[in-house]
Amino acid sequence: MARFKEQTMLLRISWMLLLITGLGILIFGILVATFPQIAGPYDLGLIRALGVATTGMGFFGTMITLKSYRGKERWAWFTLWFYPIFWTLHLVGRLPPGNDHIHQVVFIVISFLGLMLPFRHFFPRKTSK
After folding, report:
1. Does 129 fall in a domain?
2. Which candidate among 68, 69, 82, 129 keeps its CA 20 to 30 Å from the CA of 37?
3. Is residue 27 a part of any domain in this protein?
């Protein structure tokens, strides 16, 4: 029973970490779409379009997390690997916003933890009969 509660707690923590990642992306996208000048002295129309695309990415990631990932659907686990891959490429490519890139490291860590903590929920050990 204690092991079950521990696994359930890991799943709860993991989807909350992924939810934070999705909401962070969603909020950033809304801000950039609404106030493109915060991203810097770039083509404001292009930045606004990127903000709208980022909003969509955050929205879909949040919905996948809340519905399918919480329901332990494997396809959601595989799909949400987009988060750590996206943030790692963002970090390696030194992409804006900001120059400190701390937020990218934070999102890499929390999305990676969110995917790895409940690994056994998605891929249980095969028991021999």
Report:
1. no
2. 82
3. yes
